[in-house]
Design goal:
By secondary structure, the protein is α+β, with helices and mostly antiparallel strands. It folds into three domains: about 100 residues, OB fold (Dihydrolipoamide Acetyltransferase, E2P); about 200 residues, Rossmann fold (3-Layer(aba) Sandwich); about 80 residues, no CATH class. Helices cover about 20% and strands about 25% of the residues. The strands form six sheets. The protein has a seven-stranded mixed β-sheet, with helices on both faces. Strands 1-2-3-5-4 form a five-stranded mixed beta barrel. It is globular.
């Protein structure tokens, strides 16, 4: 099958132009609007069949640009209603533009905001949540200021560098996906958002990996693990590691999910507990409990807590974590979160539910059972506000009222964030 032909409407391939950036999208990409060739003349000309934005302009997306900047760009792809372009030159920089700390910033796909001051990162993340709330859920609601990470760099306690087998004797990069590419890797000898302890260990891990690559031990692509915990830096997926969140001691498998910014977790879990208990509910259900982080952090505020998790190993660790912390009012069971409410025994009017689903959000079967159960309060934690706001529409239709929207910046220098929304069932 031949290579797909380039769509040359409204711009030819590698067309260069100057434009002003007006905003940042929730993907961390600069967005500008331009007039097309032929605007104000014969509309049957180039670009007339394209779908423009509500302002009657053509949208161009340009990574690593900032609002208010005048830039020179080169178009590499045209879509039905927007184009994508590479940044060639910043002609008029934003007053908030700074020199990125990482030498591979702009090539490595891990960070999007190292060229933007941290206070402005927080400002834009808050605005992006508000826009998603308005345009995806149809709600205008006051979004609280983003809770900042105590560390702007050196916060990430887990990284997973990738590599491929060497080709034609060439060394394989060990690092992360290249910006805008699903296959090509960028070699990353140091990651500035990872903890100093991980970066101290990374050269030895890379050297050992290169030795094994040279010996032909890897026949296919693979992923490394470096996880910083109380024991030091762990590189074994099956190792048991230990974390402490405030006064809570937790242990779990290195390969299992756990939030990767431990420095913000005390404030994060405290907020979830306060929102879950705010309505006076006596019981709590943690529907995606993992190794028990939210369930155990919230347990002191409730008479009884029930956690459910599809991973049996995570349930084992959650149970052990409850015992290790002397928490006797929390129980855990393995199973599909969509069946959590069968035989639960908690009165819905006295129950709060905490949900922290995967990035894809909640599926229909889970939401249907949740709404049939009808808990008094729901606290929805999400690493993807777009799917969270999509699900919010279902909560509003089911008779829940939004009471709080609080973003947390667990991922400085990147477009990612965690957002907590609180909902109370209407009378």
């Amino acid at each position: 099958m031949g290579k797909k032909k380039f769509n040359d409407q409204p711009f030819p391939y590698h067309h260069e132009l100057e434009m002003e950036v007006s905003t940042l999208t929730n993907l961390g990409v600069g967005l500008g609007r331009v007039s097309l060739p032929g605007d104000g003349q014969d509309k049957s000309r180039a670009g007339s069949s394209q779908q423009r934005d509500p302002l009657g302009k053509w949208v161009i997306m340009v990574p690593f640009t900032l609002p208010g900047e005048t830039v020179r760009v080169r178009v590499y792809r045209n879509h039905k209603n927007y184009s994508e372009a590479d940044l060639l030159e910043v002609l008029t920089p934003s007053p908030h533009r700074i020199a990125p700390r990482c030498p591979v910033f702009g090539r490595c796909g891990g960070c999007q905001y190292q060229h933007l001051t941290y206070p402005e990162q927080l400002k834009w993340k808050r605005q992006q949540v508000a826009e998603l709330l308005k345009y995806m859920a149809g709600v205008e609601f006051a979004v609280a200021a983003v809770i900042a990470s105590p560390r702007e760099f050196g916060y990430r306690s887990k990284i997973t560098p990738h590599f491929n087998p060497p080709r034609e004797g060439q060394p394989s990069p060990i690092g992360f996906l290249k910006t805008g590419n699903r296959f090509e890797l960028v070699d990353v000898p140091q990651c500035d958002i990872a903890t100093p302890e991980i970066n101290a260990e990374l050269p030895a891990v890379r050297a050992k990996t290169r030795q094994r690559l040279a010996a032909g031990e890897y026949q296919r692509a693979a992923t490394l693990l470096l996880r910083h915990a109380q024991e030091g830096v762990i590189t074994d997926y099956d190792a048991v590691i230990h974390e402490q969140v405030g006064g809570l001691k937790l242990h779990f498998l290195a390969r299992d999910f756990f939030q990767n910014n431990p420095f913000i977790l005390p404030a994060f879990t405290t907020y979830v507990r306060e929102q879950a208990a705010a309505s006076g509910a006596r019981f709590l259900v943690d529907a995606y409990c993992g190794s028990g982080l939210f369930a155990l952090a919230c347990a002191p505020a409730f008479e009884r807590v029930a956690g459910i998790e599809i991973s049996e190993t995570s349930v084992k660790f959650a149970t052990e974590n409850a015992q290790a912390n002397g928490i006797g009012n929390a129980t855990f069971q393995a199973g599909d979160a969509a069946r959590i409410f069968a035989g639960l025994g908690f009165p819905p009017a006295e129950t709060a539910v905490v949900i922290d689903p995967p990035r894809k959000g909640c599926d229909e079967s889970f939401l249907s059972q949740l709404f049939a159960f009808g808990p008094r309060t729901v606290v929805y934690v999400s690493c993807d506000p777009a799917t969270q706001m999509r699900d919010l529409k279902n909560f509003l239709a089911a008779g829940y009222a939004l009471t709080a929207v609080q973003p947390f910046d667990l991922f400085p220098q990147t477009r990612h964030l965690e957002c907590v929304i609180a909902l109370v069932r209407s009378a």
